C-alpha cells in the first residue's frame, strides 16, 4: 500500500471518527454527557493520547533510522566506486576497459534505482551483471610488477566491498514500520477524535477545525510512510552522489 493511500485511509478514519462522535452526541441520553462522564472520558483520552504519542515517536524514529542508514550506505558506495576508479587509474592504461565498464555499471544502477519513468518502481535487487563482469575484468588483469599487483588486490577488495554495500542496501529496503503498530495508532487516534466530536458544538468552525486536525495527523503518518520508502515518492534519497561519480570517473 502506497503512502498516499495510507494517508487517505488515516484521514477518512480520523475525520470519520470525529463526525461519528458529533452524530452520537444527539443520540446519547443526557446523563451520559454529564460533567462526571466528561471527566472520566477526558482521563481515558489523555491516557490514549499519551500512548499514541509514544507509538508515533517510535514509528518516526524507526522510519528516520532506516532512511538515514540507506542514505549513508548509498553515499559510502559512491565513495568506494570513485576510489576503486582511482586505484585502477594508477594501475595504468591496461585497466581502461574495466573503468569504462564501471562507469556503465553506475549509470545502470542509477536507471534502476531512479527510473526516468515515474510509474516504475525502484529496483534494488542484486541483478547487476555489469558489476560481476567488472570484477572478472579486474581479475583478468596481468600485473607486471609489485605495484600493479598491490593495486589489483586493492581493486578486488574494494569491488567486493561495493557488492556487499549493494546487497546491504537491498536488504535494508524492506519496510521498517511494523504494520500492527500503525493500525493500532490509527485506531487510537480515531477514538480520540471520536471523543472530540462527542462533546464538540455543532457548527462549521468546529467541523473545519476537526478536519484540519485530522489532515495534520494523516499528513504526519504520510511523511513517516514516505521515509520508510526512501527511493520513491516525495521524500526520497538523492541520486546526486552516484551522478557525481559518473561526472568524475575516468578522469
Describe the structure.
Helix content is 76%, strand content 0%. Helix 2 (35-91) packs antiparallel against helix 6 (179-199), helix 2 (35-91) runs parallel beside helix 7 (204-227) and helix 3 (96-113) packs antiparallel against helix 8 (240-248). With 251 residues, the chain is mainly α. It is built from eight helices and no strands.
What is the ordering of alpha helices and beta strands?
A: HHHHHHHH
- Shape type: rod-shaped
Which regions contain 5 or more consecutive residues with pLDDT less than 50?
Answer: none
Radius of gyration: 27 Å
Name the beta content range: under 5%
SSE inventory with pairings:
Blueprint: H1 3-25, H2 35-91, H3 96-113, H4 129-140, H5 146-171, H6 179-199, H7 204-227, H8 240-248
Task: Describe the structure concisely.
Helix content is 76%, strand content 0%.
Structural features:
251 residues, mainly alpha, 76% helix, rod-shaped
